[in-house]
Structure formats: structure tokens, C-alpha cells
């Protein structure tokens, strides 16, 4: 929320400046969503040819130079000093698990279906915030959580048989993503974003390299090599664009734009693989997106009420 400023101060931000910042934030989020969709499609394409270990390794290794730029801007190597190395390792392990599950799921199912299931991550996060963060969640948000899981069930269609391996992997990725977000929230109380990203990327590069060597190195050649590099570049640039989006605009302005990934993934899936999302996918995705947007709305309302110090409304999310 914009802070009050002295109108006599020529350097103080004006309403026009705030509007320009918000527009820039929206544009950055739209770019981020598109780039992530392109990255996911590239991962799916490569997943038919190479083991997941190779893609995870390139995703982290190619992104490492970009992360080092963030570290330099945050104060250099001195900014990497931490007393919470174990927590960083937990965040890295959970995040890498989510990445590996998601990447493998892309290779096993329609891209739009996998992306729609991954949208359940905020639903999982809200549910996990109660036991892990001791955050109060009221009946309205619990209802939204329940509806979100109904949306997931609509997509995976358990009544039609046993869940596919890809669907299980996507669900695991969504749950691990939620857990990673919770660990990041705890780390953010003392650690800058550049430090959190650095330890995750370095750990991912190291683990990915060991994983690749254990499975057996399959050198990507020709276009595949450039696509592997592209996965890292797309991911790094998309992450930076998302960081800029949240820096220049409020969460409520840009977070809903993330759901545009379903549109991009559906379009790319149709053009490249002739994939057409089923009606179940669209219905389930609509339920998940609706639940996610409602939870975002409730969280914003609760935050506003807490700022106004209305004790009677505490915990009634």
C-alpha cells in the first residue's frame, strides 16, 4: 500500500508515479507468466528425450550466473552469510523435489492438465499454514480450500480409474511447492531474497550434477542443447520479472495474473502437440482459480482489518 508523503517534497512519489509502477508491475507479471509457460513447454518437449535429472541440472546451472547478479546487487558475498543454513537446505530439498515432480509430470500428461493441478499449490499452502505457521484460518477460507481440492478431483477424475502417474507427480509437486513457500516465508523474516535464491540454485546445481552422473550423462546436442540452455534462461528471466512485478505493484494487482498460465499452456499445447484440454480440465481449473482468487481476496481483507486494528475480526478469514 502506498505510504503517505509530503506533498512539498518533489522527490516523493505521486499518484501518477504509483499508477506507472502498477502498470509496470502488471506488464512484468504478464511477461513472467508467458516465459514460465514457454519454459514448461520446453521442459515437456525435452522430457520425451532426456531424463528429468538433466533438465533439473540445466535449469539450475544456467540460472546461477543470473542469481550471482542478484547477490552482487544485494551486497556481494557478504550478504550470503547466514545462521540458518539447515533451513536453507530444507528449502532447497523441498523446492528441488517440487521441480523434479513438476518436470516429470509435464512429460507424462497434457501440459494444461499439469499446470491446472499445480494451481492447487496455494490451496495446499493455506491448509499447511495452520499446523506449520500457526496462522488462523477462518471458515470462509477453509471452504475455499475444500472447493479447491474439489477442483483438483474434477481434473484427475479418480472415478475414472486409478490416478495416472503424471497426475500423482503433479499433485506431489503442488504440495511440495506449498511447503517450499512456507519455508521461504519463515526464511524471509531474516534472509534477503537473493540469499534464499542463491542457496537453492547452488544446491540444485550440485544435486542435479550428482543425479546426472549417477543416471548416466546423455549429452544434449544441436537444438536440444540450446533448448536445455533456454530452460535455465527462461526460468531465470521469468523469476526476475516476477520479482519486479511484486516490487512495483501490490500482490492483489498481479497475483491473479499467474492464472493466465493456463491459457498460454493450453495454446502452446495445442500448437505443438495438438493437445485439447477436456471439459473436466476447464471446469476443475475454474473451480481452483475461483478458490485461489477468493482466498487472495480474504487475505487482503484480513490484512487491511489488522492494519486498522479491529480485534473483533481476528481469525475470521
Tell me what the structure shows.
With 317 residues, the protein is mainly alpha-helical. It is globular, with a radius of gyration of 20 Å. The protein has 12 helices and no strands. Residues 1-12 and 310-317 have low confidence and may be disordered. Helix 3 runs antiparallel to helix 4 (111-118). The longest helix has 33 residues, at 15-47.
Key terms:
317 residues; disordered C terminus; disordered N terminus; 74% helix; mainly alpha; 12 helices
Short note summarizing the structure:
With 317 residues, the protein is mostly helical. The protein has helices at 15-47, 52-73, 85-108, 111-118, 121-133, 139-156, 165-187, 193-215, 223-248, 251-254, 261-273, 279-307.
Question: What is this structure's SSE topology?
Answer:
Layout: H1 15-47, H2 52-73, H3 85-108, H4 111-118, H5 121-133, H6 139-156, H7 165-187, H8 193-215, H9 223-248, H10 251-254, H11 261-273, H12 279-307
Helix pairs in contact: 1-3, 1-9, 1-11, 2-3, 2-8, 2-9, 3-4, 3-7, 3-8, 4-7, 4-11, 4-12, 5-6, 5-7, 6-12
What is the ordering of alpha helices and beta strands?
A: HHHHHHHHHHHH
Shape descriptor: globular
> C-alpha Rg, in Å?
20 Å
Q: Counting H and I runs of at least 4 residues, what is the number of helices?
A: 12
Amino acid at each position: 500500500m502506498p505510504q503517505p508523503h509530503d506533498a512539498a517534497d518533489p522527490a516523493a512519489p505521486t499518484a501518477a508515479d504509483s499508477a506507472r509502477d502498477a502498470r509496470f508491475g502488471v506488464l512484468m507479471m504478464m511477461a513472467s507468466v508467458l516465459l514460465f509457460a514457454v519454459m514448461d513447454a520446453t521442459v515437456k518437449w525435452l522430457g520425451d528425450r532426456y531424463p528429468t535429472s538433466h533438465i533439473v541440472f540445466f535449469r539450475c546451472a544456467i540460472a546461477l550466473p543470473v542469481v550471482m547478479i542478484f547477490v552482487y546487487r544485494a551486497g556481494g558475498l557478504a550478504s550470503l552469510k547466514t545462521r540458518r543454513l539447515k533451513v536453507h537446505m530444507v528449502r532447497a530439498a523441498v523446492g528441488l523435489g517440487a521441480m523434479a515432480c513438476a518436470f516429470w509430470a509435464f512429460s507424462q500428461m497434457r501440459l494444461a492438465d499439469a499446470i491446472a493441478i499445480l494451481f492447487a499449490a496455494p490451496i495446499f499452502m493455506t491448509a499447511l499454514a495452520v499446523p506449520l505457521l500457526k496462522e488462523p484460518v477462518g471458515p470462509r477460507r477453509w471452504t475455499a480450500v475444500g472447493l479447491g481440492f474439489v477442483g483438483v478431483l474434477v481434473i484427475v477424475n479418480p472415478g475414472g480409474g486409478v490416478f495416472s502417474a503424471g497426475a500423482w507427480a503433479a499433485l506431489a509437486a503442488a504440495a511440495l511447492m506449498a511447503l517450499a513457500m512456507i519455508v521461504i516465508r519463515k526464511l524471509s523474516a531474516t534472509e534477503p531474497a537473493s540469499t534464499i535464491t542463491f542457496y537453492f540454485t547452488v544446491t540444485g546445481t550440485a544435486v542435479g550434477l550428482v543425479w546426472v552422473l549417477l543416471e548416466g550423462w546423455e549429452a544434449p546436442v544441436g537444438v536440444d542443447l540450446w533448448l536445455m540452455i533456454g530452460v535455465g534462461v527462461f526460468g531465470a528471466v521469468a523469476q526476475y520479472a516476477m520479482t519486479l512485478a511484486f516490487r512495483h505493484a501490490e500482490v492483489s494487482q498481479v497475483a491473479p495474473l499467474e492464472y493466465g498460465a493456463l491459457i498460454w499452456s493450453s495454446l502452446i499445447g495445442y500448437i505443438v502437440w495438438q493437445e485439447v484440454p477436456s471439459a473436466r480440465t476447464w471446469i476443475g481449473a475454474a473451480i481452483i482459480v475461483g478458490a485461489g482468487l477468493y482466498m487472495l481476496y480474504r487475505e487482503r481483507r484480513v490484512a487491511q482489518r489488522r492494519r486498522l486494528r479491529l480485534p473483533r475480526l481476528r481469525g475470521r478469514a
